[in-house]
Design a protein that fits this description.
Largest sheet: none
Structural class: mainly alpha
Low-confidence stretches: 128-132
Helix content: 55-70%
Mean pLDDT: 76
Strand content: under 5%
Number of domains: 2
Number of strands: 0
Distance between the termini: 65 Å
Radius of gyration: 29 Å
Shape: elongated
Oligomer: single chain
Order of helices and strands: HHHH
Length: about 130
Amino acid sequence: MTKRYNTPHRTHPIKAMLTEEEYAGFSERCKIYGLSQAEMIRQSLEKVAIHPIIKVSVVDDKLLSEIGGMTAEFGKAGSNLNQIAKVLNEFHAPYPELADDVKTAVSDLANLKYEVLKKVGDVIGNDKTYKL
C-alpha cells in the first residue's frame, strides 16, 4: 500500500543563486528552525514582510516653484468648475454655454497636468509614459 501525504501537489520550482555568506546564513536559519530549505522558502513567502525601496530624486528650487505655480492654476480651474457645477445644480437646467465652459475647464486641467508631468520629467528624467 502506498503512503499518502496530506500536502498540496507542487509543480513550480524556484531557483536562486546565493553568495557564500547568504547561503551560510540561510542554511543556519534552516537548522535553527528545523525546516528544510524548501519549507523555509515557502514559509518566508507567506510570513515575511517585504518593504519596497523608494527612490527619491533631488529636486531643485526652480522645479518646486514651477510646480507651485501650476498647482495654483489647477486650483483656479477647479474653482471655476465648482462655480459652474453650483449654477447648474441651482437651476436644474443645463445651459449650452455652461457646458462649453465645463469642457474648456476640463481641457485646461488636462493641459496643465501634461505641463506638470513634462516639467518634472525634464528635471528628474522621463522613464515612464504618462496618460492624460
